[in-house]
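call fold target=Tripartite tricarboxylate transporter substrate binding protein
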Amino acid sequence: MFHRTIAQRLALCALACLPLASASAASDNYPERAIKLVVPWPPGGATDALGRIMAQHLGQRLGQPVVVDNRAGAGGNIGTTAFLREPADGYALLMATSSTNAANPHLYRTPGFDARQDFAPVAFIAEIPNVLEVPQASPYDSLHALLEDARANPGKLNYGSGGIGSSQHLAGSMLRHRAGIDIVHIPYKGSGPAVSDLMAGQVDMMLDTGSMAHVQAGALKALAVASRERVPALPDVPTFDELGVEGMHASAWYGIVAAAGTPASVIERLNQELNAVLQEPQVREALGKMGAIVAEPGTPAGFGAFMAAEIDRYEEIVRVSGATLD
């Protein structure tokens, strides 16, 4: 009685395989309904702007709407953990950033997720280098003049940021370390208020990724770009490397990830479509106006290797900053 016939065994195997067959069929027909793109930051910032551009054009290619869902709070952790409560089927995606997926694991003891295990990388989208900006009325017209004054007067100059542990804070801390200067950090509750006070001259400088329009409008002066190459949107602004502050590379990066366990066929489809979106002239122009360096077509594995390396790199950046957020 303990020995099943071959027919019984085949019937049991067929029943056991039904969920797998259903999942496979569902992924083959993907997408059959709207997709949610979780942006773990409030509307109006660079992450939101990038997310909306990608959502619009990805939806056009997939033939289904891609709806942006802003879930702000706790430095991006609230939206990221909310995303991970969604099924791993490709109908919920996340705008991953250097803050949430590289810095936060070192800033928070319990961010609510495992940056190395909980995500399935899909595609690298772009990076936006931090730009050292000063008010239009600032006496500093060059990085050399600013650093000379900072070294002669330790603690005299300050820099604003969107808060402790923000990309602006970490970039400012990196500048202190790389340039050997003593400047005071002034954290704000968001980059918007910090930029407003920068333009008003209430703070001396800021290393920001989202103020390109203010620079282009003449409200702020850009002294240096924290990237390996000059930014197309600011072709006349030199890099820190060119100006003698070597290794001052601080960029916010952005990519799209799914939840770990998402079918490989869905990941591959999304990767192909996102790579195609990034080649569209309209998209490249829109991202370029934001100061973004658009990623070249790549694989999910390549993006995954990049994210893993960034988690390692940010461990040192956060340690030097001394920032903790628990």
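return ok
The radius of gyration is 23 Å. The mean pLDDT is 90.
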